[in-house]
Design a protein that fits this description.
By secondary structure, this protein is mainly α. The chain is built from 1 helix and 2 strands. A two-stranded parallel ribbon has the order 1-2. The chain is rod-shaped, with a radius of gyration of 24 Å.
């Protein structure tokens, strides 16, 4: 009688190919994700309190984050 196995077992070569594909996808998300989610913010001409962290001092209404571009 043949033993019962659950699931599908891949060879080492298949696992390496899958690993490379996942790695490329992850790198692509890290490298190009900035362009998909980055926003621009312009400092208003007469800010209320000159506080960088005050959203009303930015034209976008939000404080620029790590992937955003701030213009002055």
């Amino acid at each position: 009688m043949k033993p019962l196995t659950i699931g599908c077992f891949a060879s080492t070569a298949q696992l390496l190919r899958i690993g490379k594909s996942v790695g490329r996808l992850f790198c692509g998300i890290l490298l190009f994700g900035r362009f998909a989610y980055g926003a621009d913010g312009t400092w208003v001409a007469n800010p209320g309190d000159n506080n960088w962290n005050n959203p009303t001092n930015w034209s976008s209404g939000t404080v620029p984050g790590f992937f955003d571009t701030a213009f002055f």
